[in-house]
Amino acid sequence: TKLKVTMVAWDRYDATVITAVNNFLLKVWNSSTGQLLHSLAGHDDEVFVLEAHPFDQRIVLSAGHDGNIFVWDIDKGTKIRNYFNMIEGQGHGAVFDCKFSPDGQHFACTDSHGHLLLFGFGCNKYYEKIPDQMFFHTDYRPLIRDANNYVLDEQTQQAPHLMPPPFLVDVDGNPHPTRFQRLVPGRENCKDEQLIPQLGYVANGDGEVVEQVIGQQTNDQDESILDGMIRELQREQDLRLINEGETPPNPPLNRSHSVNGG
């Protein structure tokens, strides 16, 4: 098999270069002389993540498609810690990216199953209050471009960064209860009526009243109630800007070109 380098990283102070090779080994090289210092074995699939510690030049993190996350001491050429991303009932999840926190005490990883993995020192009680599935309501919403080719949200015709804070929803788009909505920056002090109720009641085709998550309901214009609330919040924001003497952003001049949001 022809050997190929899949990823390259420098340590914090550029004294060494670390390469990941498609035979699943990591090589540590002296950046000045090119001398091979260590070969690090542990992965059993290709590695596409190499991340140097933000201030300790001895420490490098590696992760790959085998679901393994290794923390290495590249001075000694030894493994400090190993984590395996096993997902119950689904096997392991390939790790696609990792980043250290600025203080070097934590690191975060994302995997092939859409999970965010958080590792580090201290207690996890701060994370226990949040739901397992968290997406913004505006994720994957369609975008358009105006005559100047600037990206705008299709529904509100506003630049995405000027829109009101989004709502938190689960993987199916159903909104979380109000206590979770207040975790979104900008919604900490919102009144209950400005947040999303968890459930609503609608009549089905047989005339029965059924309980349904509000994110799935639509009004007479086939607009979801959740979208309607977003639009109303945008209107209130524009009115507030006008009252404060500012001019809200202009609507697009050309709405013919649309793209999918991501």
Automatic annotation (TrEMBL):
<dbReference type="InterPro" id="IPR001680">
    <property type="entry name" value="WD40_rpt"/>
</dbReference>
<dbReference type="InterPro" id="IPR015943">
    <property type="entry name" value="WD40/YVTN_repeat-like_dom_sf"/>
</dbReference>
<dbReference type="GO" id="GO:0006357">
    <property type="term" value="P:regulation of transcription by RNA polymerase II"/>
</dbReference>
<feature type="repeat" description="WD">
    <location>
        <begin position="40"/>
        <end position="82"/>
    </location>
</feature>
<feature type="compositionally biased region" description="Polar residues">
    <location>
        <begin position="253"/>
        <end position="262"/>
    </location>
</feature>
<keyword id="KW-0677">Repeat</keyword>
<dbReference type="GO" id="GO:0007010">
    <property type="term" value="P:cytoskeleton organization"/>
</dbReference>
<protein>
    <submittedName>
        <fullName>BRWD3 protein</fullName>
    </submittedName>
</protein>
<dbReference type="GO" id="GO:0005634">
    <property type="term" value="C:nucleus"/>
</dbReference>
<dbReference type="Pfam" id="PF00400">
    <property type="entry name" value="WD40"/>
</dbReference>
<dbReference type="InterPro" id="IPR019775">
    <property type="entry name" value="WD40_repeat_CS"/>
</dbReference>
<dbReference type="InterPro" id="IPR036322">
    <property type="entry name" value="WD40_repeat_dom_sf"/>
</dbReference>
<feature type="region of interest" description="Disordered">
    <location>
        <begin position="241"/>
        <end position="262"/>
    </location>
</feature>
<dbReference type="GO" id="GO:0008360">
    <property type="term" value="P:regulation of cell shape"/>
</dbReference>
<keyword id="KW-0853">WD repeat</keyword>
<dbReference type="InterPro" id="IPR052060">
    <property type="entry name" value="Bromo_WD_repeat"/>
</dbReference>
